[in-house]
Specification:
The chain has about 240 residues and is of the alpha+beta class. The chain contains five helices and ten strands, in the order βαββαβββαβββααβ. It is globular and about 60 Å long.
Length: about 240
């Protein structure tokens, strides 16, 4: 039997989602909790890695098990997980469902604070002094569409760099600027690199048109410094 799970987590203490030999990944914590709960080894497969310090509202993973356990009992895994990881739902799915390969698009959010962060907010937003949002608004449309995002990522051998961005929405509240990126998929550091360049534009260190130039030349050196991970959230993953 195959199951699909949605999990939220505070990524502050972790070196990303994926299991690692020399650091703690969220996958290791979840698999250990399943092992303690069921006394069996259960391997989970996620929709994608998140970087060290990145959070998730709706990360997805799948796992297989022949154990006769109902859904409510599966959710008891939360009793064994630390408070910064919560499994929100678990449902049965068809055997051909795959958390990563079956996804058709993803949404990420990036949160910038308008005022210096308090100690209670500092791990969940990024404050940029003297940020001007107006040139950022002019720059955002350059990202929309299908482009080669080689200039906005860390290259991974064998991974195609052409991606489609469906939309980038900017919402302003009293305390925050909230950017929502919706695309078919994303490359390593891609959203943070895009945000880093938008931040440089908002500080008047680069012109909005630099986005177009980087997409055309694929020159990573022209992009801004990769934005900090603590402002980034994997928000939602869409399936057929």
């Amino acid at each position: 039997m195959r199951y699909k799970a949605i999990v939220s987590y505070d990524g502050t203490r972790y070196h990303g989602f994926q299991s690692q030999k020399n650091a703690l990944g969220i996958q290791q914590v979840i698999e250990k909790s399943f092992r303690l709960m069921t006394q069996t080894e259960i391997k989970i497969h996620s929709a994608g890695r998140t970087d060290k310090g990145v959070h998730a509202v709706g990360q997805v993973f799948h796992f297989d098990s022949d154990l006769n356990i109902d859904i409510d009992s599966w959710l008891r895994i939360n009793d064994r997980l630390p408070l910064d990881i919560r499994v929100k739902s678990i449902v049965k799915v068809s055997d051909d469902f795959h958390a990563r390969h079956s996804s058709v698009s993803k949404k990420y959010k990036y949160i910038i604070a308008k005022k210096p962060s308090s100690v209670f907010d500092a791990n969940y937003e990024v404050y940029i002094r003297n940020l001007d949002i107006e040139p950022i608004k002019k720059a955002i449309p350059y990202f929309i569409g299908t482009h080669d995002f080689r200039g906005f990522c860390q290259l991974v051998k064998g991974k195609p760099t052409e991606k489609t961005i469906f939309s980038i929405d900017l919402k302003e509240t009293k305390k925050h600027y909230i950017f929502t990126f919706h695309g078919n998929s994303f490359l390593k550091y891609m959203v943070r690199s895009m945000m880093g360049t938008l931040i440089q534009i908002g500080l008047h260190r680069k012109d909005p048109e630099i986005i177009k130039t980087i997409l055309e030349t694929k020159d990573r050196q022209l992009a801004g410094k990769t934005a900090e991970s603590r402002g980034l959230y994997l928000y939602k993953i869409y399936y057929k």
